[in-house]
Amino acid sequence: MSATKPSQLLETDAWQLRVPDGLSQKSPLLVIPTVHPRGDRRILRCAQVALDAGFRVHFIWLGEGSRSEHPFVRETLLPSPADRWERMRMARKVGRIANLLDGQLWHIHDYYMLPVANRWSKKTGKRVLYDVHEYYGDEYASSLLNPEVLRPQAAKLIDAYQFHSAKRLGAANVVTEKMAGPFRDNEIPVTVSPNYPLLESFDTAPKIPFRERRWKTLHIGTLNPGYGTQLLIDLARRATERGLPFEFEAIARFHSDADETDFAERLAQAGNPNNLALVPSRSVHEMPAFMASGGFGLSLLSPGGQNEYSVPSKNFEHLMLGLVDVVSDRPGQRGFVEEYAVGVVGTEADPDGFLDRMLALANDPEVTESRLNAKIEQAREKFTWERAVAPALAASLQRLANTSPAE
Fold it and tell me: Record's superkingdom (predicted)?
C-alpha cells in the first residue's frame, strides 16, 4: 500500500481514508458487512488496502453520523446496539442489506456473520474473506457458557464451524501467527495481519518532549472489566492517596450500558478520584494527536482466556508514538514489552508497583525519552501496516475476487 499513490483524502465525522485516483465505476465492489462500530480501526486499515488494490468499498456497520456518499466509498449506517445480544441479532439485518448490493466480494469481520456469508456465497458463487479479530472459540465459550466444564468442548465446536465456513468461503485473514496455524492445518488460505498502525497516520502527530507529557497517562481502549477497569481505577486512587502528580485520561468507550454503569459504580466505590477524567471518543484519524499528548499508555488486560496471549493494537500505537507501554502481566503483553518497548509490567494486586516504576521513568525524563526514541525507530521498520501487512492482504483480496468457490 503506497501512501504516495495519487489520491484524494475522504473524511467523515468518524473516519478518514485515501481514495486512489485510478478507481472508476467499473472497479470491483468490495462489500464490508459488519456488526462492529462505525470507524473500527482494523476495518478501516483493511479497507484502505482494498482501495489501493483497485476496489470500490461499501461499509455496512453500526453507528451514527453523516454517511459517506462518495461514489467509490459508500456506507450504510444502522443504529448502535445497546448490548452484545442486540449486536448479535443485527447480523441478519446487516446481511440482508449486503445482499442487495452487487458486490464482487465480501470481507466480513464477525463470527456472527458466517451463516449469512455462507448463504450469500452459495447463492452467488462469489467469495468471502473472513477476518478473525479474536480467538473466538475461547472468547465465546468463556463468556457465554456455564458450567465451566462445558467450555473446552464448546470452543472446539465453535472453531470447527469457523474452519469449515472459511474453507467454503475462500480465505481467512487473522491477527496473529498463532491464530493462523489451525487455519493452515485445515488447508485454508490465510494471511496474517497483526493490528499494526498505519505509519502514515502517525507522521503528522505532534512531537512533544517526554518531560512535558510525563505526568499524563492515557487509556484509549474499551472500558470493560475484562480490559482492566478496576486496575485503572486503583491506579488513579493510589496515585491520589500518595500525592503523585499523575493524571489519567480514559476514552469514554463502553461495550454496553451495563459496562458504563459498572464503571460508574466502581469509580464511586473508589471515592471518585479527581485525577481520572473520562474524555469524549475521537475519530480514528484524530487519535494520533491525542495519544501524542501522553507519556504513558495503559493496556490492562484481566486474567483468563485469550487475554493471556493477546497483544492489543494500542500496544503498537503506544510504541509508535513514544509512550511508555504500561501493561498487566499477561504473557503476550509481557513478552512484547520485554522485547520491543519501554514499558512497565505489573499485577492487579499491586497498583503501587506500577506507580513506582512509572515514577522512576517520569523522574528521569531525558534518559526515558532517549530510550523511547530508539524504540520508535525500530518499530517503524517492523510494526507498520503498510510494510508488514498490506502486500499479502491485497494479493488475497485480488485472488478471491477472480475465483469462484468451485475453483
Answer: Bacteria
Q: Do 173 and 208 reside in the same domain of the chain?
A: no
Q: Is pLDDT at 122 greater than 70 in this prediction? A: yes
Run of H or E residues at 345: strand 343-346
Take residue 278 and report the three cell numbers written for it: 473520562
pLDDT digits (tens, 9 = 90+) for 4-41: 467 899 999 999 999 999 999 999 999 999 999 999 98
pLDDT at position 406, please? 46
Pairing of strands 296-299, 56-62: unpaired
Helix, coil or strand: residue 296: strand
Q: Give the Cα separation of 281 and 278 in Å (integer).
A: 9
- Domains held by the chain: number: 2
Other beta carbons within 10 Å of 76: 17
Question: Which residue pairs from 354-363 have beta carbons closer than 8 angstroms and sit at least 24 positions apart in sequence?
Answer: 354/235, 354/326, 355/235, 355/238, 355/239, 355/242, 355/244, 355/246, 358/217, 358/246, 358/296, 358/324, 358/326, 359/244, 361/214, 361/324, 362/214, 362/215, 362/246, 362/295
Q: Do 184 and 256 fall into the same domain? A: no
> Which grid coordinates are listed for 164?
469449515
Strands (E) located in 154-267:
170-174, 190-192, 216-219, 247-251
334, burial (CB in 10 Å: exposed 0-12, middle 13-18, buried 19+):
middle
Higher pLDDT among residues 108 and 303, named by residue: 108
Look at strands 296-299 and 170-174 and give their pairing: unpaired
Q: What is the DSSP string of 297-330?
A: EEE-PPSSGGGGT---HHHHHHHHHT-EEEEES-
Mean pLDDT, residues 162-182 taken together: 95
Give me 175's grid cell. Answer: 491477527
What CATH number has the domain bearing residue 354? 3.40.50.2000
Could you give the strand order of the β-sheet that contains 127-132, starting from the edge strand earlier in sequence?
69-70, 73-78, 56-62, 29-37, 105-108, 127-132, 170-174, 190-192
Please state the rounded mean pLDDT for residues 325-346: 96
Average pLDDT over residues 33-51: 96
**Domain containing 328: what range?**
200-382
CA distance 402 to 399: 5
Question: Both 267 and 344 in a single domain?
Answer: yes
Digit-coded pLDDT (tens) for 64-116: 999 999 999 999 999 998 888 899 999 999 999 999 999 999 999 999 999 99
**Cα(388)–Cα(393) distance, integer angstroms:** 10
